[in-house]
Amino acid sequence: MTSLVRGRPATVKDVARHAGVSASTVSNVLHGRSSVADEIRARVEAAIADVGYVPSAAGRLLRSGTSEVIQLALPDIRSPYYSALAHTVIQRARDLGMTVVIEETDGAVEQEQRVASSHPHRGVGGTLICPMSLTSDDLAELRPELPTVLLGEHTQGDAFDQVFIDSRAAARDVAAHLVGRGRRRFAFVGTERGEGTGPGALRLAGVRDVLRAEGLDLPDAAVLGTPDFGRETGISVGEGLPVGEDGFDAVVCATDELAVGVLHALARRGVDVPRDVAVTGWDDAPESRFVTPSLTTVAHDLDDLAAAALGFVTARRADPARRPGRHVSPHRLVVRDSTRAV
């Protein structure tokens, strides 16, 4: 069957126009309401077939106002970490009979506030949000009517349930591994500018914990703040990074994307990783296994994180007055060639 609508998906209005009825009548047919005469119903169903209209599962749930839709708000779904997180949440939600609608916030405070303050009339029964810009004060002013769960450590607050990994503890694992490999001159790439409690700052603190215990130093000049956590930024950092005998012998990056960019720049400079400098990343993105050398990184237990977040939504539905909870998901250090012993 060929759709009568060219260049875009058919809509309810297209069906209504083709059938010669109102959009509300089409909606009544789609919802199986008995108020529609048989002749009209048949005409609408024929129009649906003619224009190629396909009602989505998420759309049906949203229109019906059920509580089976969970909105997942992420800063950038192009990020390997966030796309992997979205995939895992969708799989877990499906097991629970839920549908996930993804909102991309770009890390903008206005978008995050809009999502975090959603109301049930939008058809959403719960919110999972990874805030980048909302502060604790912002959170305190919000009074969401939906079960809302914070993902990650960018925003700390006691108004919502929260699920995260312990970035500081994971960073201690990274630093201890590098010290065990004989590395002594560290650089850290990827702190959030103007931010003291985000994951970058917590990871930096974890590295400093280990170095301090070893009698080593990580001066401020060796801490490189970045405007973002992408590959291009990593390349820019790597192009000017002093490494080897007269520079750093270990570079800890706050994300795999930064680390991949650093590796790319170092390779173009002829720097041998890990002989001249060891490099680590964060998130265990798929490309971390396939770059050369393969990247040592921190892996999050995304399945545990997704299950805990959805569990908080379910628990708050059952008891809206319950006190907010916090869940720390496991992590593990994945050792690869970028930090192998030399």
TrEMBL record:
Keywords: DNA-binding, Transcription, Transcription regulation. SMART domains: HTH_LACI. SUPFAM superfamilies: lambda repressor-like DNA-binding domains (SSF47413), Periplasmic binding protein-like I (SSF53822). It comes from the Bacteria. GO terms for molecular function: DNA-binding transcription factor activity; transcription cis-regulatory region binding. The keyword DNA-binding applies. Residues 10-64 form the HTH lacI-type domain. Gene3D superfamilies: 3.40.50.2300, lambda repressor-like DNA-binding domains. PANTHER family: LACI-RELATED TRANSCRIPTIONAL REPRESSOR, LACTOSE OPERON REPRESSOR. This is DNA-binding LacI/PurR family transcriptional regulator. The lineage of its organism: Bacteria, Bacillati, Actinomycetota, Actinomycetes, Micrococcales.
